[in-house]
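Fold this sequence, please.
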Amino acid sequence: MRVVTWNCRGALHRKAEVTSGFGADVLLVQECAPDVRLTGYGLPIWYPPYEGARKGTGVYVANGWSAEWFSPVPDLPWIMPACVWFDRDAEGITLLAVWTNTGGGESRPPYAEQFTRILDRYEDEIVAGRCIIAGDLNASMQGPSREAHAVNLARAEDMGLVSAYHHANGVTHGEEPDMTLRWVGPGRVEYRYHCDFVFVTRDLTENLGCHVQPLFDMEVPPSDHQPVIVTIPGV
């Protein structure tokens, strides 16, 4: 099973050449419009992070994989809970697709607390295993949310959930050589963060592979985010 998460920063219909290189069975794309078709994939299941949003998260499946969206979670609109499976007669995998955000003109908790609430709500599913949480958390060890993010990471690990990138590459949180977001702030000052994640339960970590695909060095980068690509053998 190959899982990819990427915040495309919109205009996904113009970026098919990039996504076709992912080779994903399950592809999560944040900041995409609904009903965008990608070669090799059917129409995605898609949700907006707030009512009236033009961009949201799409989950695409290919290569015999299927996905079904569970009921929306009104008080956690930054998450789309789903089930993905290759064989309906086999046990599926719980997939929690995430795009934390503060849009919609409504009061929302900070980014890290949005992830905390996911851990609160889905603790039973995580502890049960065969669970993946993936997407753009907008929280990292490089930014202002690092303390709250570190607390979330410790709690997630206690629940049996690990970051695929850090597990597969033997990297400590906060020491990542690969960043997933390049943000240019006031005065054209550039900041880089590792804030896109694929978390998996420990039962899915055997021979796990993961890397961040470099896009920032392209002449015209297709997004300010780089995709996280995870391979889970035997699933």
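The mean pLDDT is 95. The chain has one domain: 2-231.
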